[in-house]
């Protein structure tokens, strides 16, 4: 008999119950007890959904983030949390920080947040120093184990393993994190002992760093850790996901654990090798259902792969999704408005678990026992393969016919810069913003009414034009040099374009946790992408008609659209990206033809797409940069191309940034004291740069002198002729009362520098 289990279930709830419960609690509208009740009822509900599996995961639920849960479990919340507060308050102090209210109530900075491997989920970074001590706090986990057991479930505890935990954290004093291993292992042993004492048989111990390139030191840490934990009276399922084991394969197979889970989607080519290496007493859990995408599994094909393995492994074979289902929406049943044809191709978390059960049944009782479902699945897979909604020959032909010249500008940057300056006549230190202006309630309401059909085209257009006029007038008053229309008509920088492109579908409730209570609803790219008609021209043209100053055309780049969507699994990502790049290219050319002189193509998510293994970075960067250039470079020298990126780590990708060859790049720098410009300086980056001088994430209004100082720091690193002056990012989350004085100070900072430097 094969067994089934799940690595983790989405926590947020079908109706985002957890989000709303958390936010109510944070606003002080409910008490801790109510929040705990919501947590419990969600857990019970999620286990009920997973009841048919042989094991139910316990410990995957979290009020904010499972890495922070692990920190609390190990007694390693940041030292600055209030020792006298209760555990829940301490937990939220670490996750969200706490503003200082009076002399005795100190401000507590939140823990740093960063991306969880190559997903769009963010975890809270554990903090270490050489002095860090750990203590076991298994109460919450044990309580949840009891909850599951009393509801009749087979609790399999889920823990983040000690080596990955250390690896994911940050040393605050430059000390070697690995030196903490010997301190942390007894704590893990204590927790494992407690779990065993509470009737837990299996622990899923997540060590996802086994799919990354590990130095010898870290490989050895695995040996030390697992030989030590092997003494615990409990079975460990060493769990890896998101990629291939490669050079860590033998290590993962041989560590003394009772079982190993591998990602059978991303590491499909390693299955045979793993089966060969795996000692004959060990369980092999195959992550056969893709936990990262939303497509139906080809069950017949999966069975072709599984049947011979089942013959060989018999009871030692377990089946699961490839990774936690945290990364997919919960239930297709919550979608009432999804195109029925597309819907037929999809599986969300609940459907994925059904698929898992079906595979297990086919293996345990023969394919005949589920013949009908398998036939149905085969038909759905074939319908998708053959659909004309998926395959558009014109798009494929156009992609094949792309010529290298299409990705090239007419002249090099130096020449273009002269031509553009002659036309634009911008002052030194030109000032601009990144695109969006405050999204007021009025704007949101208008968009909503329009979406619901409560107001018509003409009404909506009039309201949006009024917003654009308002934003343009404000910018003229502020005396900014390059204006924007303000993006009032956009709910989201990807969704706005996806909704106007062919090949995209949207869900009503397909929420995926990004961090804490924040969720995103990624579009689904199901088919060949094309642009039926202009998407932004009318708004930009209107904005430009109101002023003689240049207004930037504002677009989202192909790589960002790709990286923030669920993408097709039937062609390489690079191919999908190329299709998007052609669609946006058409928009760029249309903008140029309507007299727009500056076009900004945002690539906020370019860095996010970097593969887990550095050895694969170049390949990704090559096609990502090529896609951007196809989008951007259909214009004449006179048109100035801007791009924008919201992060502050360019060391690894500076070459790619230079290859993108945008005339101007605006980046986030205000919080790094311009230090990140060092990499641009060291690279001799020739094109113009707008380092953000105003942190838009905070409601604080930056003083003029502060921005002057930042710009001077920038001018020490970059030729002043290359410098632009702008905020870190778009202003849509701010209020006009904050934006106006901040931009006023920014513009006068720029003017001051024009005179001084
Ligand atoms: N143009 C977008 C805006 O201003 C850019 C947002 C982003 O980079 N995340 O909102
Ligand atoms: Zn940004």
UniProtKB/TrEMBL annotation:
UniProt xrefs under InterPro entries: Cbl-indep_Met_Synth_N (IPR013215), Cobalamin-indep_Met_synthase (IPR006276), Met_Synth_C/arc (IPR002629), UROD/MetE-like_sf (IPR038071)
Protein name: 5-methyltetrahydropteroyltriglutamate--homocysteine methyltransferase
Active-site residues per Swiss-Prot or TrEMBL entry: 697 (proton donor)
Top EC class for this record: transferase
Sequence positions that bind Zn(2+): 644, 646, 668, 729
BP term (GO), one: methylation
PANTHER family: 5-METHYLTETRAHYDROPTEROYLTRIGLUTAMATE--HOMOCYSTEINE METHYLTRANSFERASE (PTHR30519)
Record flagged with keyword Cell division: no
Chain residues that bind L-homocysteine: 434-436, 487, 602
SUPFAM superfamilies, alphabetized: UROD/MetE-like
HAMAP family hit by this protein: Meth_synth
Record lineage: Bacteria, Pseudomonadati, Pseudomonadota, Gammaproteobacteria, Thiotrichales
Binding site for L-methionine: 434-436, 487, 602
Keywords associated with the record: Amino-acid biosynthesis, Metal-binding, Methionine biosynthesis, Methyltransferase, Repeat, Transferase, Zinc
Pathway(s) annotated for this protein in UniProt: Amino-acid biosynthesis; L-methionine biosynthesis via de novo pathway; L-methionine from L-homocysteine (MetE route): step 1/1
Cited function: Catalyzes the transfer of a methyl group from 5-methyltetrahydrofolate to homocysteine resulting in methionine formation.
Cofactor(s) needed: Zn(2+)
